[in-house]
Amino acid sequence: LAGTVPEEPRCTVERADASLTYSLFLQRFAFSRPVILGGVTDNSAFRALCTREKLLAAFGPFPVRLSTANTYSYRKVDVPFQEYVEHLLKPQDPARLGSDTLYFFGDNNFTEWGPLFQHYVPPPFRIPGTSPAYSFGIAGSGSGVPFHWHGPGFSEVIFGRKRWFLYPPDKTPHFHPNETTLAWLQHTYPTLPPAQRPLECTLRPGEVLYFPDRWWHATLNLDTSVFISTFLG
Asked: Signal peptide location in the record (predicted)?
């Protein structure tokens, strides 16, 4: 389902393709700046399992844990996956606070969802001393998570488009922790001088974004989206 959120054609995140070697990844990006990787994975088999029909058939009655879409996600709600898809998976209301917006991402039951994740091909790069953990999500157009930070990781879009905003660790963005990314984009973003704007880009299916440790980032789904992240902890 296409959303009504405009796509910014400008991309200020560096891109790399499958010719990027592991040593160059470590040297140029792993500890210093984000990069969008194209052509490094082929997840067509995983994508075929992530259609609405396939996911509902496989996981419809299973409960999923939803988080509130604010910087400090305290509230968790468990609902059957089918209820989330059929009743809660809607475009973001710009007037709704993050604490009132439920978002399916990250709290995955690996006993139930593990067989699906076995088909996912993760990016080929790792950070020494870390191990990967998957976070799978589905969200409506205009939804997203406001600015926050954690350890390094990769994020791949399976269906839809996802817009990313990133700041380095030493440049704290101006935002309200209970304001949705959509509200921030509408109210705060237009007031930012060029020097204070984040790095940003729109991720499309098959593209993978890498973000380093402690980089601030916010996300905005331009369409109803399916996505998966590989956190390196």
From this structure: none
